[in-house]
Design brief:
There is one protein chain. The protein is globular. Strand 16 and strand 17 form a beta hairpin. With 504 residues, the chain is of the alpha/beta class. Helix 9 runs antiparallel to helix 10.
Length: 504
């Protein structure tokens, strides 16, 4: 079994995790702050830490607008700090992966500046330029609430440039072989520093074609396969995780026969968990599991409940989307793009039973579980913060001013919901959410077959019960507010149970 197939992953934003070290004290998390909290992650049961972008960036999109792939943002520390982080992570038996945004850069990147100034120069063809702002009508605008076109005018070059996301994020031109070579140099630079893998941000959107759109095109799939071959040759233990928010059939293209990415986030599954809770009916979960094909050998799903983006609802139909807006969106300010900018606990009404139910699903369903920082303690969010900042606020480590995150009086992002919810107090309380999550992680590790045992749906006759077998475990989850007697066990409202089959 490959290490990633049964690993516990944990996502942290450097700037929101812990402010510490020589570059600290400014109200912004640092790489030294991450190092300081590695013992906590080890205690929790984390196997691999995933850091969101820490590269040089104007931070108009929290670092996903990269201005220099080879440099650390000075707010976060130095290259020496990063190298120390790699060493300290490995010393604790954990692994480290980072985000790699390959679809686009920042407009402030030197490549883009050179491209706009000198169209015939070496970077002139690094981006997708054109004279027709109506080209690619088939390509949807992803951020419909802030952008009205996928093209933006550049007054210097006097042409339009293409962008799938924000207008300050021009798309790279993958029809240019020089871009491929640049990507391999970037990958090698960071892997040679000891990384254990990458999350490939927005990977379905690398290519565009007239009449075909720009999602999961054959050329994109071919590049992913090329990148995997490069990784296998040079870094055979590394993992490539694809962010591919696509329907099941298109998602499977990124696995190929096991010769493309190692893991893909299970976007088709995630919203159905919330839909089942809103309905009090497990039917959406059974239905989506019927649609998801079996994975090739050596491949794995990345299973998640929440992350640094909105709770995306792109993978459900209009009726289901409206249902979840009604159920989970009490304030229109929380709407972000096609989704809801809320954390796990507030989405679930801060109901401890529902939160535990969701964590049980995360740890028992097919795939390697991904935790989002702060969800293990039930952190809050704030609708007053713009866009996705509501779910990217500072980690709350301790009670009191600064929440143990910083000594600065005004952190870059505010601490929301007060400091009553924090690691320090929950760690010492055996009944806390944090300790319950830790126990569930330990339970998951006690059943290593959960890594790749097949999913077998079990019929109970109760619409609100989601029951399935994974190897020698019968997993039961109650999506209703009523107690349900299932014979071998009675599940309380929103209760759950993992039962060894031999006990039945």
């Amino acid at each position: 079994m490959n290490w990633y197939e049964n690993a516990i992953f944990y996502q942290a934003l450097v700037g929101s995790f812990k402010d510490a070290g020589p570059s600290g004290g400014q109200g912004v998390g640092t790489l030294q702050g991450v190092i300081e909290k590695l013992d906590y992650l080890q205690w929790l049961g984390v196997d691999c830490l995933w850091l969101s972008p820490f590269y040089a960036s104007p931070l108009k999109d929290d670092g996903y607008d990269i201005a220099d792939y080879y440099a650390i943002h000075p707010d976060y520390g130095t290259m020496e700090d990063f190298e120390q982080l790699v060493a300290e992570t490995h010393k604790r038996g954990m692994r480290l992966m980072t985000d790699l945004a390959l679809n686009h850069t920042s407009t402030e990147h030197e490549w883009f500046q050179a491209s706009r100034r000198d169209p015939s120069g070496p970077y002139g063809n690094y981006y997708v330029w054109g004279d027709d702002p109506n080209r690619y009508p088939e390509i949807r605008i992803i951020f419909t609430d802030v952008e009205d076109s996928t093209w933006a005018w550049d007054e210097v070059r006097e042409q339009y440039y293409f962008h799938r996301f924000y207008s300050h994020q021009p798309d790279l031109n993958y029809d240019n072989p020089a871009v491929h070579e640049e990507v391999f140099r970037i990958v090698s630079f960071w892997m040679d520093k000891g990384l254990d893998g990458f999350r490939l941000d927005a990977i379905p959107y690398l290519y565009e074609r007239d009449g075909q759109g720009g999602e999961s095109l054959p050329e994109t799939i071919a590049f992913v396969e090329k990148l995997r071959a490069f990784m296998d040759e040079n870094y055979p233990e590394a993992v490539m995780v694809a962010e591919a928010n696509q329907p099941p059939k298109e998602t499977m293209e990124f696995f190929g026969t096991g010769n493309r990415v190692h893991m893909v986030f299970n976007f088709p599954l995630m919203p159905r968990i919330y839909e089942a809770l809103a309905l009090g009916d497990a039917t959406p979960l059974y239905a989506i599991m019927d649609e998801i094909p079996e994975l090739p050998a050596g491949c794995q799903w990345g299973t998640f409940l929440r992350n640094h983006d909105e709770l995306t609802l792109e993978m459900v139909d209009d009726a289901s989307r409206e249902l979840m807006y009604r159920h989970y969106l009490p304030d229109e300010q929380m709407r972000a793009h096609v989704g809801i900018a809320r954390r796990l606990a507030p989405l679930l009404g801060n109901d401890r039973r529902k939160i535990e139910l969701f964590f049980s699903l995360l740890l028992s369903m097919p795939g390697s579980p991904f935790f989002y920082y702060g969800d293990e303690i039930g952190m809050a969010d704030s609708p007053s913060l713009p866009d996705r900042d509501a779910v990217r606020t500072p980690m709350q480590w301790a009670p009191g001013d600064g929440a143990g995150f910083t000594t600065a009086p005004h952190p870059r992002r505010p601490i929301v919901g007060g400091t009553k919810i924090n690691v320090e107090e929950q760690k010492t309380d055996p009944t806390s959410l944090l300790n319950t999550v830790r126990e569930l992680i330990a339970q998951r590790k006690a059943f290593p077959e959960l890594a790749n045992a097949p999913f077998e749906a079990v019929e109970t006759g109760e619409a609100g019960i989601f029951a399935f077998q994974r190897g020698g475990l019968l997993c039961l989850h109650n999506f209703t507010a009523d107690a349900v007697d299932l014979g071998p066990v009675e599940l309380g409202p929103f209760g759950y149970a993992w039962l060894p089959i031999e006990d039945q």
